[in-house]
Amino acid sequence: MKRADIEAFFATLAAANPHPQTELEYASVFELLTAVLLSAQATDVSVNKATRSLFVLANTPQKMLDLGLEGLEAQIKTIGLYHSKARHLLQTCQILVAQHGGQVPRTREALQALPGVGRKTANVVLNVAFGEPTMAVDTHIFRLGNRTGLAPGKTPLEVEQQLLKRVPAAYLVHAHHWLILHGRYICQARAPHCWQCAVASHCDFKPKTTSKSS
DNA sequence: ATCCCGAGGG
DNA sequence: CCCTCTGGAT
Predict the structure, then answer these.
(1) Which of A6, A20, A38, A211 is the most exposed place for a label (fewest CB within 10 A)?
(2) Does A77 participate in catalysis according to the annotation?
(3) pLDDT, tens digit (0-9, with 9 covering 90-100), for A93-102
(4) Inter-axis angle of helices A172-185 and A3-16, to 10 degrees?
């Protein structure tokens, strides 16, 4: 895509959704970190369903530790991948208590040192909680980047670096959410809504079916 | 059968 | 590089 097309794309996304935000529900940075950690290969809807009751029982690292492994697993079982997520979350809580005074650290290095927290989760926390212009590349942004040619990288890291270069600076802080929402509701994996996509005319991707025709 | 705001381990 | 982890929705 040409620079002017990219500019126009983000202008459209910004106009349609001036204040984009995550669809994960959270009331603190710790809850945000927890929700994002739990969201791997799961839908936001299923994560929210579980965390609404989980956060009543445990909304701090210490309370999460008090809940215990089996108690936590029971709360997040419906999300999927629950054995490793429960184990990682408790290990993370131990580190938060022991090394960070019960707070969520603000640097990429400290975040990615937490079990269950990789580059993508760290990017989300840095962006959503601390306002940094990071680009968390999840399945939606990866797919959208490749389909449209906006960021045709072969790995999430490559796509992230391409987006950080190509997204106009003025749109960088919110670009993560605009792209994720576009990927989730328009450039979706199955039957994308190309007829309501702002960059369809600049996009080479031709789906076999769209939800309009089928 | 495929997909969902991935990360860790081999 | 590959594989595994997992329930729920479509």
Answers:
(1) A211
(2) no
(3) 999 999 999 9
(4) 80
